[in-house]
Amino acid sequence: MARQLLFMKAINEALDQAMAKDDTVILLGEDIAGGVTVKHLEEENEDAWGGVMGVTKGLMPKYGRERVIDTPISEHGYVSASVGMALTGLRPVPELMFNDFIGFCFDAILGQGSKMRYMFGGKAKVPMTMRTMHGAGASAAAQHSGSYYGLFGSIPGIKVVVPATPYDAKGLLLASIEDDNIVIYSEDKTLYGIKGEVPEEYYTVPIGKAAVRREGTDLTIVTIGKMLYVAYEVADRLEKDGISVEVIDLRTVAPWDEETVFESVKKTGRLIIVDESNPHNNTATDIAAVVTDKCFDYLDGPVKCVCAPNVPVPFAVNLEQLYIPNADKVLTVAAELIDDLKR
């Protein structure tokens, strides 16, 4: 049975159901329970925090501190420990508070975890799912607002998912935890408050499969995360001019769904990728390069990317809003591709 659920509650429910189903699922992170050695939290109010955004709230009293583990402020320490746990039979789910902090624990992922299955001829499993946050729009400033899922996606041995709806937030997280490889599960902090239909039962959404959210015939827009809602606005506005837009929610950044994107481009002949990350060496440019190579004969114009500018996220609200890709920016780019259709 489905009901309306907040994005963050869908994540919480996925963690709850995964832990109930499999006692090897362990949560680790900074303040995900109540705080380390904080006396006033260890008695009456020990579940006060649930992580920086409260996503894990309620899980520690249910599963105990042996499975919901508060860690010191040492990302290198607890992510390295998580890789070790995964290699020895557990399914850890560490929470990296913000994806900007990846520098502190990159060796555990790039230097160790991502390589183990290859180094041991496919015999080693590293079933670690790292939850982290990305995204501008919350006035969290430069060190807490970047979108670096594309950076993770360039590493062999790692899968990267970016849900855009509450339904996918739950289903993709459960699929990630079931996976025997490292999965980076990246949550846009500005989506935590949106609601959508989420089934009560345990279910998974396949990793590596995009979703066609809206069918169209004239232009394809591929989106990552909250850029889905920008594409909806663009599609609505272009529809008034008689332009039919197909909207694809990528859902998985690595491996991204080439088949679905190719099929759409072959139908529409035009492609825009909307990606909140910075404009160089990112997922959007990778998709653009591959589509140009594989679908060149079907294209009626150049593949376009709409990304954030090549600067860190500003703190000032007005500058931050200018930083984030929006419908007007996409429409400006789209005008170049659909000009012939308007004549």
TrEMBL record:
Pfam families: Transket_pyr, Transketolase_C. SUPFAM superfamilies: Thiamin diphosphate-binding fold (THDP-binding) (SSF52518), TK C-terminal domain-like (SSF52922). It comes from the Bacteria. Residues 5-194 form the Transketolase-like pyrimidine-binding domain. InterPro entries: THDP-binding, Transketo_C/PFOR_II, Transketolase-like_Pyr-bd, Transketolase_C. The keyword Oxidoreductase applies. Keywords: Oxidoreductase. GO terms for molecular function: oxidoreductase activity. The keyword Flavoprotein does not apply. This is Transketolase, pyridine binding domain protein. It comes from Streptococcus sanguinis SK405. The gene is acoB2.
